[in-house]
Amino acid sequence: MSAKTNQTLSAKTNLYQHRLPKSIHEQVYSIHDRITGHDLARVVILPLIKAPISLMSRRRKIQIRQWLILGAAWQFMALWICVYDHLAVNSGLSSSPAKDYTFLSNWMLYSSVTFIATLIGGSLLVFYINPKFANRSYARSIIAVILCIVLTMTIITFISAYFYLTLILKKSVVDPDFNRAFLDYVADPLNLKDTLIWSTITAITQFIFLMNTKFGAGVFWKIVTGKYRAPKAAERIFMFLDLNSSTTIAEKLGEATYHRLLKDFFAHITSPIVNNYGQIYQYAGDEVIVDWDLSKGVRNNQCIQCFFEIKKEIEKRRDYYYKTYGLVPTFKAGIHSGNVIAGEIGIIKRDITYSGDVLNTTARMRSLCKEFNVELIASSDLLQHLSLTDQFNIHELGSIELRGKTKKIKLSSLAMGIKTSLIVSHRKNAA
Q1: With the C-alpha atoms ordered 227, 212, 194, 113, is the resulting torsion angle positive or negative?
Q2: Residue 367, C-beta contacts closer than 8 angstroms, at least 6 positions apart
Q3: Do the bridges between strand 232-243 and strand 331-345 make them parallel or antiparallel, or are there none, so unpaired?
Q4: Is residue 275 within 8 Å of 57, Cβ to Cβ?
Q5: pLDDT score for 47
Q6: Given a cut of 80, is residue 427 above it in pLDDT?
Q7: What is the CATH number of domain 235-430?
Q8: What is the pLDDT of residue 35?
Q9: For residue 399, which of 380, 383, 375, 420 has the smallest C-alpha distance?
Q10: CA distances (Å), origin 243, targets 21, 265, 397
Q11: If we measure between CA atoms, which residue out of 333, 303, 307, 328 comes closest to residue 318?
Q12: Which 8-state DSSP code applies to residue 126?
C-alpha cells in the first residue's frame, strides 16, 4: 500500500475519532483494519451491530438484556416441560403415545411456540407492561401480565390451529368440517394445560422482575446467589443528592402533595442515573444516594455528567412542576470516591449495604453546598481520576476540615461553563 494511501487512511481515522463520541469510537475498528482485514464478521458485521447499540440509552439496553434473559429462561422451561411430558407419556400410568409422537418433534413445537410467545408476550411484558405499571401495585402488575400471556396463548392457539388444519391435515377453510375441527383443536384440554403452565411461569417471571426493581438492578440476584454473604472490599463513587429548602416546601405543599413531589422527582431523575451507569443505593427522605463502580463512574466522567443531566431533565419538566406544584425543585450534591466494605445484612429483611468513611465524608460535603452557595462539590480524591473538559467550570474551595473529622480534605465546586482563572488542574495538584 502506497504512502499516499496510508496518509489518506490516517486522515480518515483522525476524522472518525473527532466526529464520534468516545464510547462509540472505542467499539469501532480503525479504517485501516476495515480495508485490509479479511475477517468479514469483525470488519463489517460487528461494527454495524455495535454502533446502533452504543447509541441506545442504558435503560433500553437493560430492557433488551431482560428480554433476552426472559427468552432463554422460557426456552429452558419449554425443554423442561417436554422432558416431563416425555416421561409422563412413557410411564406405565398412561396409554401409549401417538404414533407420530417423538421427543424431538414435541420439543421443536414447544420451542417454536415459546419463541413466538417471547416475541409477543415477552416484548409486551418488558417494553410495555413493566414501564406502564411502574407506579402501580405489584398485584396489578402481575394480574396484567397473566392477562397478557393468556391473550398471547389464545392468539398462538388460534394461529397454530389454522396452520395445523391447513398444512398438516390439508383441510380447506371452505371445508364443512373445518369449523368443527378448528373448535375441537382450540378446546383441547392440552391447550388449557399449556395456558395454565405458562401463566404461572410468566407470573413468576414478573415477580422476579419486580423484586429486581425493588432491590435495584442486579442486587436481587446477588442476594439470591449470596455474593456478599462474606463482606468484600470495593472502591466506589458515591453521590449524595437532596432537595433545597425541603422543609419549607413540605410546609407549603402539605405532606401528601410533598410526597407526590418527591415521587415525581425521583422518577424523573432515574433515567439520567441509569443512563450514566449509576445505581440507586438508597432513598432517605428527600435524599437519594447514587453509587458507581469506580471504573464505570470515571469513564467519560459519567458520575459528574449524571448530576448535570439530572438538571437538564428537571429543566425539561419545568412547566409540569410549575403547573402541578407551583415550583421547580432545585437540589445540591456532594460526590466522593473511596474504599468501602460491601456486605449483606439483615435476617427478616436482607439488603446489601456499604460501610466506610467515604459515605460520612460525602454526606458532610453535600451539606457544605449551602454554605458555599454552590450546587455540586467534589473531592480531589475523585477529580484526580477524571479527565474533565472545558465544559466544566471547576472552582477550588480549598482544604476543609469537615464536621466530625480531624483530617482536612481538598474540595472543589463544579458547574457547567467556560473555564476561568479560578480553575486548576486537579491531576497536577494530585501528582
Answers
A1: negative
A2: 334, 403
A3: antiparallel
A4: yes
A5: 52
A6: no
A7: 3.30.70.1230
A8: 43
A9: 380
A10: 32, 9, 22
A11: 328
A12: I
